Amino acid sequence: MEGESSFSVVAPPVFDGEDYQVWAVRMEAFLDACDLWEAVEEDYEVPPLPGNPTMAQIKTHKEKKTKKSKAKNCLFAAVSPTIFSKIMSLGSAKAIWDFLKNEYKGDERIRGMKVLNLVREFEMQHMKESETVKVYVERLSGIANKVRILGAELTDNRIVQKILVSLPERYEATIASLENTKDLSKISLAELAIEEKTLKKLAVK
Q1: Are 154 and 122 in contact (CB under 8 A)?
Q2: What is the pLDDT of residues 160-205, one digit of tens each?
Q3: DSSP assignment of 63-82, as one string?
Q4: Where in the chain are the domains?
Q5: Which PANTHER family does the record cross-reference, listed alphabetically (predicted)?
């Protein structure tokens, strides 16, 4: 019970009209963790109680009604005042979710343009002199995750390739050393992160 009460104070992510895809992923995870996603995904009706209901029937009936109300309230709490004014008259959590999806997800052409811009941003990245390999990996992974959320593919292997060809000159000897000990076409992001300490040590010699 203590764990449940501490979790209940966590606020849902707030959507202000930007980055719908990111918000939708986070919000679905939040609702699922609160055991409310079913009330959003399926707009089920709660049938009236039969005559002389059992305690179990009363409990189930109350739980289903409560979940629908809580899911709707969570979505109301997870949007900015401007967006709330657009959804305040909608009657169910599913209706609210579908409206936001249709309104902000965008069509294929718009998503395609977003993907194109993100891929261009990815290709233009270079490791800064003040950055560590870890920070550079995280920066590139952040862009890649935005591409994936939009439904396109940008693999970890592609990120590794990008990192290896865009490291500063001080890492050239290190890359050559890695080429002699590993298959760079198969090295993972996790393995590259593990190598960072070695990269640093060799880079300052």
Answers
A1: yes
A2: 889 888 888 777 776 777 777 777 777 777 777 666 666 555 455 5
A3: HHHHHHHHHHHHHHHTB-HH
A4: 11-104, 108-203
A5: CCHC-TYPE DOMAIN-CONTAINING PROTEIN, OS04G0629600 PROTEIN
